Amino acid sequence: MILDGPFELDPSRRYSVDLMSFRVDMCIRRISVGLFAYFGPYVVQISALFLGRNHAEEVSLIKPGVNFLTMESISMLPPQCDGVLLAAWGDPYHWERVKKSYHGMKLVLNQYEELTE
Questions:
Q1: What number of other Cβ atoms are within 10 A of residue 116's Cβ?
Q2: Beta pairing class for 2-8 and 83-90
Q3: Distance CA 96, CA 71 (A)
């Protein structure tokens, strides 16, 4: 289920994700939420988190310096990335509750240029 997006990006630019979080107003269980990037016909998962029983109202997938899925310090989007979206999957019983409690995401991207030698 798509929670937010897709948000279009300029595929001629390169991006990294500095911060990605979302807000919910009630406890959601047994659902995974992830940030996905697409480029052409391909989709890749950038980060994801399984929401267990207890979590904060603001859930972070990526904070400055750490991607909680990969534990990498930099979360790069693929070259020629067309856009990103936030998706949820898991127990369908909880999907309606996820839709009702979702209140938007915070996504901070950094544009950069690759150095060529």
A1: 4
A2: antiparallel
A3: 30
